[in-house]
Amino acid sequence: MTCIAAGCDVQFLEICTSNGVSIMQTKLTLRLEERLITQAKARAQRHGKSLSQLVADYFVQLDEPVAAQRQALEAPLPPVVASLRGALKGVADLDEGAWREHLRTKHQ
């Protein structure tokens, strides 16, 4: 099977079991510059991981910021912050120049 859109070749499919759970693993061939391959192998070795695990960890991390942002948006606000909601209602325009002048006068 060939995956043309991703620029890779899927060579075989393997089913492994880990703690009684079936895990499908697909071999993937990536075409990268020799320098990148050397760096990636060295990094994997320094961290005691296989190159496959290093790549898998990278793809997992790509989705983590999105998930963290989603959680942050869904999390309730701390009570102090929630109490400030709507504090500026009715203020038409906050004039930055007037605010700076106020601070300048105040701190003379």
Features of this protein?
108 residues, alpha+beta, 20% strand, disordered N terminus
Short description:
The chain has four helices and three strands. It is α+β, with helices and mostly antiparallel strands.
Task: Describe the protein.
This protein has 108 residues and is of the alpha+beta class. The protein has a domain of 74 residues. Helix content is 50%, strand content 20%. The chain is built from four helices and three strands. A three-stranded antiparallel sheet has the order 1-2-3, with no helix packed on it. The longest helix has 24 residues. The N terminus is likely disordered.
- The computed structural class is alpha+beta
Distance between the termini: 75 Å
What's the overall geometry?
elongated
Question: How do the strands of the widest beta sheet line up side by side?
Answer: 1-2-3
Global Rg = 27 Å
Give the helices and strands, then pairings:
Layout: E1 2-3, E2 8-18, E3 21-29, H1 34-46, H2 51-74, H3 79-84, H4 96-106
Antiparallel strand pairs: 1-2, 2-3
